[in-house]
Predict the structure of Pentatricopeptide repeat.
Amino acid sequence: MRWFLRSLHRSFCSWQWHQQSFAEKLSLLSMEGRLDEAIRILRRHPNSDLRLNSETYLPLIRSCIKFKAFTQGEEIHKHIIQSGVEPDLILQNNIMMLYSKFGNLELTQQMFDEMTERNLFSWTAIIGAYANSGDAVKAFEFYKKMIMEGIRADNFLYPLVFKSCSGMKDLKSGKRVHADVIRNGFEWDLFITNSLIDMYTKCESLGDAKRAFDETAIRDIFTWTTMLVGYVQMGHGLEALELFKKMMHSEVRPKSASFSAILPVFSVLRCLKQAKQIHGLAIVSGFGYDKFVGTALVDMYANFGGLGYGRFIFDRVKEKDVVCWNTMIKGYAQMELFEEAFELLNLMQINGINPNKTTWDCIIPQYLQSESSTRVVLNLINQLEKVGLRLDEMPLEQMYEHINDIQQVKELHSYLGRGGYITDSGVASSLIQMYSKFAEVEAAQQIFDCIGKKKLDCWNSIIACYSNNRCTDKALKLFELMLNDDIEPDLQSWNTLISGLIDVGDFDSALEMFSKLKWTKQNLDPTTVDVLLPLIRRITCSMVGKQLHNIFLRNQYEMSRFVCTAFINMYGNCQEVAYAIKLFESMDSKDLVSWNAIISSLANNGFLNEASKTFHEMKMAGIAGNIITWTALVSGYAQHGEIDESLKHFRKLQMEGLKPNSITISSILPACAQSATLSHGKSIYGYITRSGLGFEDLFVMNALMDMFVKCGSMDYAERVFRRLSQRDIISWNTMIQGFGIHGKARTALSYFDQMLAEGVDPDSVTFIGVLSACSHGGLVEEGWKQFNSMESKYGEIPSGKHYSCMVDLLGRAGNFEDVKNFIVQMPLQPTASLWGALLSACKTHKNVEMAEFAAGHLMELQPKNPGNYVILSNIYAAAGRWKDVDRLRKVMVDNGIKKLPGSSWVEIGNCIYAFSVEDQVNQNMEEISRTLQDLATVMIEEGYDPKIEMDSFGDNKKLISSM
């Protein structure tokens, strides 16, 4: 009878099952999670039999989400497509949610793009997919698109949006969303408030987080804990403790996360007594051996050196996870108790917990810091492999900073080769970085070539290897090869390449690469900004600089104090002082570097009064100038002819207790050279000797020699030259030109021979000095010899200046036929300086015909230069051609060309006096005249024959000296 009843029941159930529709059967299976059975039914029956629709599939998709049956969900989705069912909006949203939970962003995006209609749930699904996957930028872009389409967020979406702002650390966008929350009336939603506080803390705006916390009427444990974590992460330990006390006096009781958050504070504050009190409170609250609290306690006691306490807690923690094990292992490693660490590592595996990369991080850095040799570290790696950690799972970059010898790299390379690890892209990448550290680019290239399938990290390492070692051409070629290999460069790729180009001074290529980076639509990170700062400072093209500034403003890159200062320097270089001032005034906070930048921009562009006023404002703001500030002023005054002011500031900075550096000295010396004030130059020379700057700084010594040369003191210049421990081409050129200018051609040529004997190759400037010396010394054959040797012997192609020197040489010698043939045959277009040299030679030799030939070309090139007319007029006057003199005078009057009055200067008592014929009433003229008479007497005694002549315009007399 019992058997009959069971049979009857089965028959009834079977009848009832067949009576049910397929939709009801699938729904029932979905509710029970029997998805495989549902899929078998779908496979057995075509759509025409089942007559399925969106409502039929919806329970199945929801069940896949609920039971995390993603494989089954994907198969059900394929059946929907194959059956030809057009899913409605609800089904599409759920399919998208399935892929989002599955972590498949590609399919989630594809579903979203295929939707003809979207609602708030659709946008929430796509934003949540990207926010939860860590792509905060993409998530926030979808939020902005949603707002543009007129859809408002709800209390489920806002937390996701705040999470995106946190991921981007975009405080400005977070505040906009906060305003949107208030406008839409969700400010009292506790879940949103907690997300808001979390966003502010992660964007490092504790003030805003505190305000949001204080304005919250009702707080739960998440509110308190979020604020607590914010204080701890930002290093505000005392504030975190105060907040924890307030929480204890509220109705909210601390949970596991609260204790885990507060415990690290005690390690920082070194408060063991208070830490033990919190430990006791955690035990009383029932969390003493919770895995999260226990892990925090182990770490805290380890930091206090109490490994015994830590191990006691560790052994009693329930359900220890890998983080807890790693924390205890790290504690032993920090105390260099490596045997205990390895024992724990073995015990960890026995308990079924597999070590991970963090386990490596806990041991290897401590091991390397203990100054163990590479072989000892390799033995350690062997031990780690025995407990289940393969080397390709370990971040080898940890070893980079601890390896300090190329031999260690080679030992590691050999070990990796024997173990067959180098074929792994990650391992190869780390090894390439190590070789790059020691500039072994060929070894790095060999490793790169051995990799079959090269991943992005490997490409980045080899590009960085060449960029960091100044082989930017090869780095650029590799970058192109990476693109051709369909590897999309990331920000690290671009940053490395741009940085390398900047380091070698290839700023144009660096700007070009940055322009390409901009079109990739990748957001700049702080590293990119740091890379660009040296480039910004060196830009000298106003248009390029403004474009770069606009890019920063348009893309809302952080205009930090450092970035603003770089742009101020840039605008100063581009002579856009108004922009520099405007940017400086817009800065909220200004430091000494910012003030120095604007003062330097003003001074270098000739706004000297404004620079002084700004310097005074800086001091009024409580910021004292440093040597850079004073050097900017000294240099600015010197560059713009304010020699006395430059020297005055040089003395003032010393009175301020500052010590001039090499740059300051190099800035003041040209001022002495420009004014030919030898006494000041000697004072600077004495200061250099007394201050201990020494003769090692070639930049300063070359400037010092140049000053003595221009002041006519070759003895001092030669004295400095002889004391140099090393000499560069500038040192030699200065001496060669100096002796040549002062008529000591043979001495100049002997310096040239000595330079060649010491293995220094001449440059184009050297030959200008040599040819000028030959010209002043009348050494025509030697001049031809040196000119002809330039390209054939030294590879220096003669420029316009060299041809001008040869014209001057031949003209001074009176070889005008050779001059004419030389000019006709020269491959370059004659310059004004060349015709000027020929005209001067014609004056010396009174060659009127050649003078007219030279002057005709010269006046075409410089029609407004009165000096050319005066020289030709004097030549005419010397030849007695007064009608031509009158004709030239009329041409000058008709063209509005005025002859500047001739003037001279003389140094008397460390002061420079300039004078002309019109200065007869000058109160210092009597002393000036007496000094000139003394000079004339000395000249006669030295064998010179002073001549007094009136120029053809009759404006003033000239003292002509002839040898």
User: Anything to note?
Assistant: Confidence is low (pLDDT under 50) at residues 8-20, 955-963. The domain at 18-215 is CATH 1.25.40.10 (Serine Threonine Protein Phosphatase 5, Tetratricopeptide repeat). The CA atoms of residues 138 and 270 lie 42 Å apart.
